[in-house]
Amino acid sequence: MAETRGLRAPRARAGQLKAKWGRIDGDSPDLCYVWGPGVARADAALLHGALSSRQCMPLSMDFEPSFMEDLKARGYDISTLEISVCKKPEHAQADEPGGVSTTIEALGAASEEIARLKHELARVKDDLEFATDCVKRADAEIERLRALEDGEPSVPKL
Questions:
Q1: Of 79, 95, 111, at which residue does a domain stop?
Q2: What is the pLDDT of residues 127-138, one digit of tens each?
Q3: Using CA atoms, how far apart are residues 70 and 90, in angstroms rounded to an integer?
Q4: Is residue 107 part of a domain?
Q5: Residue 20 included in any domain
Q6: Which domain holds residue 112?
Q7: pLDDT by residue (tens digit) across 98-143?
Q8: In three state form, how does the secondary structure of 14-62 look?
Q9: Of the four, 45, 90, 117, 154, which is 20 to 30 A from 3 by CA?
């Protein structure tokens, strides 16, 4: 087995799907499946299934060993297994930041933010109208008080 001290979680670049021996967040060392931006989690599940799933033999109803079990049985050290595959550029763009699926998610988030801002704007507009009314009343009261000081008692109180 490979050295376990200093073992850390593997990382994947954009458009890359990787299976490599590592340790995630203090767990015991194991084969880790990682994917970078532009790669779907389902692709990592596909790779995991291909390496770890046992296939049922239809006639005997027995399960044959998985690819990894077969390698172990043949004397291979699984902790040295590393598989890395990258998407072709024309396929990676659809899921990368700025691609189609990311843009649809961003539009949904933006429309929610716009609705929230419209509601906030309506509230601020109501507050501004109220404040404007208060200022007008205060101005009228000041004028009334000035008129009283000048001796014009006929000015109505608001």
A1: 95
A2: 899 999 999 999
A3: 35
A4: yes
A5: yes
A6: 98-158
A7: 444 455 666 677 777 888 888 888 888 988 999 999 999 999 999 8
A8: CCEEEEEEECCCCCCCEEEEEECCCCCHHHHHHHHHHHHCCEECCCCCC
A9: 45
